[in-house]
Amino acid sequence: MASPERAREIVVGLKEAGIQLVASVPDINLLQVLNLLYEDRGIIHVPVGREEEGVGVCTGAYLGGKRPALLMQNAGFMASCNGLTTTALQFGIPVVLLVYYAGDMGDNAFHMLGLLTEPVLDGLGIKYSVMRDPSMVRKQIAEAVTAAEASKRPVALLLTRAVL
Amino acid sequence: MKRYECLQAIAPMIKDELFVTTAGGATNEWFAVRPSDGNLQVKTLGLCSSIGLGVAIALPRRKVFVFDGDGALWMNFGSLATIGLHQPKNLVHICWDNRQYESSGGEPTVSTAGRIDYAEAARAAGIQSLRHVNTVAELRDAVRYALDHDGPHFIWASIEPGRTQVPPLPYDELENKYRFIRYIEETEGVSILQIPISHSYQLGSEKRGR
Asked: Does domain A4-163 have CATH number 3.40.50.1240?
């Protein structure tokens, strides 16, 4: 079960790393994080209908001076590949992709998503870390923001159930 | 009316507003009619309205124009609902409807059959300020209203197909990005592009400090 305490670690980590805007599409495993984002006045939360819209919103937000992240499931990451390629990568936009890792080892749903998520990230040339240790969450978020800013590219964090 | 004459009519009304323009003729013609670092070209078909929404949310006191097309808007139709949800007061969304995929060779879009009403679609999505314009005078009036009032605004502009011969874009998307950000930094008095101090430099200065 997702835990409010672990969700809080993620939101605190985003704030510490200077994330100012999060665009999102829900997943049941992201519920606790989303609940916090809906309440939090310190981060601009922009729910979108489709993940690729989120790539656009994050791009616009970055250009307008807000440090963005996009919270979604890996199905949505797959669905936003063109936006990531022809906008985020082609224009060089630093955006942190917070991706729930459906189909991860031990998960009986969406096994194909689990199989293909990392190869697709590799194929797109998007650097990523898998988050498995709750005690490392804040550090990994900070590192992802640094990597995105330094490379001016999207960087992904794969959120497993262990950290949610 | 032709898109080019519409753009020529709008340009004198514009000061430092930001423009996010869809892939295709609208971008080339706008860059020619109103050269400015406040223009951002979009490469992903359909994504201009989402990028414009992001800029509008990040800079709520700055007017942000989106130039969309009938084919591009069809590709990201849900964007109307997202704009209707978030109600950015500073967003002016113009759909140049030439009833074809002009950049792809003129194939029909959803608009070609003449049944879709983009203004009603925007209204149903929760966008209250709507216009459907068929003449340059109506367009000028709609843009004047959008400049002077809170939005979000949606202007459905029915235009004739056809491009006007203009020079190619003066720079690629990377240079466009940097110029657009620098333009926002200058006009808003903010710092966006922060170059972090490298670790090696930090270590070096610590050593020297000791």
From this structure: no
Per the structure block, which two tokens stand in for A162? 């262990």
DSSP 8-state secondary structure symbol assigned to residue A27:
-
Q: Do A65 and B184 touch (CB under 8 A)?
A: yes
pLDDT at position A19 over 50: yes
Q: Which conformational region is residue A40 in: left (phi greater than 0), alpha (psi within -120 to 50 degrees), or beta?
A: beta
Residue B210's pLDDT is: 46
Which residues of chain A make contact with B199, given a CB cutoff of 8 A? none
- Sort residue B177 into left (φ over 0), alpha (ψ -120 to 50) or beta: alpha
Q: Among A43, A48, A51, A95, pick the best mutation site for testing chain B contact (most B Cβ within 10 A).
A: A48
Q: What is the pLDDT of residue B24?
A: 85
Q: Test A52 with B85 for CB contact under 8 angstroms.
A: no
What fold does the segment set B3-209 form as a domain? Rossmann fold (3.40.50)
Distance from CA of A105 to the nearest CA of B (A): 34
B57–A64 C-beta distance less than 8 A = yes
**pLDDT digit string, tens, across residues A70-120:** 999 999 999 999 999 999 999 999 999 999 999 999 888 899 999 999 999
Contacts of B88 in chain A (CB under 8 A): none
Residue B194's pLDDT band (boundaries 50, 70, 90)?
confident
Element (H, E) at B68: strand B64-69
Query: How far apart are alpha carbons A70 and A147 in whole angstroms?
Result: 16
In this predicted structure, the answer to whether residue B41 has a pLDDT above a threshold of 60 is yes
List the single residue in B with minimal CA-CA distance to A94: B193
3-state SS class at B107: strand
Cα of B50 to nearest chain A Cα, Å? 5
